[in-house]
Structure formats: structure tokens, C-alpha cells
Amino acid sequence: MKRYILNLFLLVMLFSVSACSDDDLGPSIFDPSTEELTELDLWMQANFTKPYNIEVLYKWLDIESDMAATLVPPTEDNAAGLADVLKKIWCLPYVNIAGSDFFCKLAPKQLMFIGSSRYNSDGTVTKGSAEGGRKIIIYEVNQFDRTNATRLKRYMKTIHHEFTHIANQTIEFPKEYELISLGYVEQWKNMKDQEAYDAGFISPYAMSEPSEDFAEMVGIMLSNSRAEWEVLLDKPATQDGKDKLQQKLEMVLNYYRDVWNVDLYALQEECEKAIYEVVNNVNP
User: Fold this and answer.
1) Which residues contact 84 (CB under 8 A, 6 or more apart)?
2) Does 21 fall in a domain?
3) Sequence-ordered strand ranges (E) for 194-238
4) How buried is residue 264: exposed, middle or buried, by Cβ count under 10 Å (0-12/13-18/19+)?
């Protein structure tokens, strides 16, 4: 009896396989093919992925972008141009001054380019963001112009700012920093630049919270020359404001020196030199 049941089962399976093989179910909904790499893809891999383990995302991927915002992808020319410039004014200066170990340890795993700005419901505009130390997003890529130093410094201010967040997420800055200024406000966007300076902040956005305050100090310092930075530090109309900025600067410099063995003034000089060479098409 058991042998009869086994034979019957095998016969049913044989007909089932035959029936399946004869049915035309149409094309699979799963695409097993992989997109062919373009010349730009290969360049990104050679100049970012292999040396620094950074994946540059410039093609439109819904899963990687903010679905709540209306965003525009970058053009390939702008993505290529910005990537080339970022290597020269971001990656190489950091490696030259701080070393490849420092840069590779803190570099984001992904660098995402968005062509447009990101407008927020509160009226502010996001220039860049960092996601848990894993990804840095750069907006306004379609406004890229390698001859415009102001535009390049704006990109770099975002990069330096977000890179600082990654450093702080890895090793926190001293809690004492939060006690220098007690004027953090939720409605920072309503503050004027001079109001921020007088309260001891380097920008209105720095007034939002201590971590942004710290990152703004680094981002603005490294995206300006030494002379420009000294002018900004002298902006407060009150001595109290000037003293607070100096206290914050000392704590920022000490953090990078003691924790990461990085001289921020040397890095500032290297970044300024790199931007000059790019804008003026000077071969280093």
C-alpha cells in the first residue's frame, strides 16, 4: 500500500513539472540584470570608492532621497564637476593635513548629490545634511560653477559642517562647550546675523543647539581664509560676545588637536589654497 501511494505521488509530481514547463508565464517581474557602469561611474569608483570607501550617489534613487520633499536630480555634468572639485578641495586637504587614517575613519560611506535646494515647511532651506555618520547629502548641485569661489565655499561649508557632526558622533566634544552660551533658541531663523554675533554665536543657525553651534564654528572657519575668519570673530559689538566666540574657538581647536591630532588652522590654510587653485585653474 505504501509503495502504491509513493508511486502515485511521483506520477503526480511528474505531471506537475511537465505542466509548469509548458506554461508561458511571461517575463519575470524581477530584473536580474545590472546597470552597465558609465565612464563617470568608473571615475567615481577610482577616485572616491577605492581610496576612501565613499560611494557617490548622483543618479536618482527614490529609496535614498526624501520622499516628503520636492527634489530635482543633478545633471551628470554638474555631478562630475562637483565630484572632481570635492576631491581637490575636501579629500586631499584633509588627507594632506590630517592623514588618510583620519579621513577614511570619519568619511561618510555615501555622498549623495541633489540638484535642487531642499525647502522646509518652516521656511528654511537645507543646504546639506548628515545621516548618522553614514551619508552626507549635498543640495544645489545644479548651481555648480567651478570658477565661483563663493559657491564652492558654500558647498565646503556644508561638507565641513556635516563632517564635524560625524567626528562628534564618533567622539563627543566636551560638555563644557554647552555652558559658554545659554542663548539657544528654537526660532533661530528669526535672528539676524548681528544678533547672533552679539550673543556669542558665529551664525543664527549656531543658536539652534550646541551640536550645531560647534559644527558651525568649524564649517565657517574652514570655508573662510584666516583673514576672513578673524573679521568674523570681531563681529560682536559687545566684549561679552567676542569673549564667548574666543572661548568656543579655543575649545574647538583643542578638541581637534587633542582628540584627532588635527591642526585646524593648518587645515584652513590648505583648504583655502585648494579653492584658489581650482578657481584659478592652477595645477598644484
Assistant:
1) 47
2) no
3) none
4) buried
Distance CA 167, CA 176 (A): 17
Predicted confidence (pLDDT) per residue in 210-237, tens digit: 999 999 999 999 999 999 999 999 999 9
Q: Quote helix, strand, coil % in the chain, to nearest 5.
A: 60, 5, 35
Is residue 171, in this structure, part of any structural domain at all?
Answer: yes
> 17-48, pLDDT tens digit by residue?
443 444 444 444 334 445 788 999 999 999 99
Range of the domain at 154: 43-279
Could you give the number of structural domains in the chain? 1
- The enclosing domain of 145 has a CATH number of 3.40.390.70
Would you give the distance in Å from CA 47 to the centre of its chain? 17
Whether 274 is covered by a domain: the verdict is yes
Residue 284 is predicted with a pLDDT of: 59
